[in-house]
Design brief:
With about 110 residues, the chain is mainly alpha-helical. The protein has 4 helices and no strands.
Length: about 110
């Protein structure tokens, strides 16, 4: 298991947990739905990578990149570190690992 698979699983778990917390604290069904969908996509990407499918890495990179953009916009609007700032930083770290894996594999 390489680092890109671990990054996809870890960031996927954080998005699911964050969606559940957002639902419980703010009764936000959008947070719950988006967290679960994003997390499942990242888990699927990790599974595809485990199977040797190159599309898994691309999927994980695309989903993580989209989440980084969404959370960065939210951070700029709210100026609150939690959860947008934390998810932006962790997403950028995951994205760096995923992009590095793309570069190394070519």
């Amino acid at each position: 298991m390489n680092l890109s698979i671990i990054a996809a699983i870890a960031y996927g778990a954080l998005t699911v947990i964050g969606g559940i917390i957002g639902y419980k604290q703010a009764n936000s069904q959008v947070s719950l739905l988006s967290g679960i969908i994003s997390g499942l996509l990242l888990f699927t990407a990790a599974y595809l990578q485990l199977q040797g499918n190159g599309w898994g890495l691309i999927l994980a990179t695309a989903v993580t990149g989209a989440l980084v953009i969404v959370f960065a916009i939210r951070l700029a609007k709210t100026r609150k570190f939690m959860p947008a700032g934390l998810m932006t930083i962790l997403g950028m770290l995951s994205l760096a690992v995923l992009v590095n894996q793309i570069v190394v594999s070519q």
